[in-house]
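User: quick one - fold this with threonylcarbamoyladenylate bound?
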Amino acid sequence: MDSSDASLKRAAGIILAGGIVALPTETVYGLAANALNADAVRKIFEAKGRPFIDPLIAHVLDFEALEKIAVPNLSARRLYDAFCPGPITFVLKKRDCVPGIVSAGKPTVAVRMPSHSVMRRFMAEVKVPLSAPSANPFGYVSPTKARHVEAQLGSKIDAIIDGGSCECGVESTIVMLVDEDRPMLLRPGPVPRSEIERVLGRALIDPKDKNPAHPTAPGMLKTHYSPKAKVVLFEGECEFESGSARVFFKRPQNPRKGEFWLSESGDEREAARNLFDLLRNLDGSFSTIYCQKLPDSGIGEAVNDRLGRAAAK
Ligand code: TXA
Ligand code: MG
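Assistant: Sure. Structure tokens for the protein plus threonylcarbamoyladenylate:
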């Protein structure tokens, strides 16, 4: 469906009746259900083939709406004032109204306030928090265009709202804020580590999962965001297998057959925006895809994180 007021009204009706709808956000497309309706949320897990141990992010309009489902603290308030609405997710203590299926039985809930204008119009219309994981089959790369969702989940969901291409192209940054003395970066994303550290005035801790079957952030499973092709990361010089695809950060001066690039000029944000679309396009045509790592700063950390997981097989 298009993103007209009439379509959003129809889609809101579907959500309030317990259905599931794919929606654009500034990061990637999400597959949404009413977060307060456990039966509706279960349909998301079924459509995606997602294990129930992997909790979902609840999407709300503003801090006031966050306070209805999570217990806020000063760190969350500061980060909200600095970056929201925008591509950052807070993990906080959950309130009792949030069903266990949303949080995979944990006492915490992940909440984010997206900035995408279509998503915000939709949230204002539907007026319930929305559980929305990325709208892809579990483990595959996230969708950044409506047609990516259509191709993989079209027959399993009630509607797709087309809001164009996603601006960021990688999923939100996730910070665990339950213990304010030990803020943790659960997933790097468009809001860079350094900016969060500046606002909080302390360093972010990296999760060290002792039990890989029950990671702190299950979306951080080592293999995730994977195309079917074999992905190999490289930095600097590399011997490429013949017949493989080679993806460079920057456009090569004289591109040859089999060479692709994430950005014309070597811009990290442009590279992030193109990453999943390019991997999808190459998947199927090539059995091996070589990908050049980005500089590890800014959104580059998130791109390298996703590439690392795509390569871990
Ligand atoms: O940008 C995004 O965040 C996108 C768009 C659609 O908003 N959503 C997204 O959702 O990436 P998903 O389900 O693909 O990733 C959510 C991840 C989980 O895999 C898990 O790692 C983490 O968020 N998470 C959710 N609830 C959590 C909790 N209570 N504690 C720790 N991690 C949690
Ligand atoms: Mg996902």
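One thing worth noting: Residues 210-214 have pLDDT under 50 and may be disordered.
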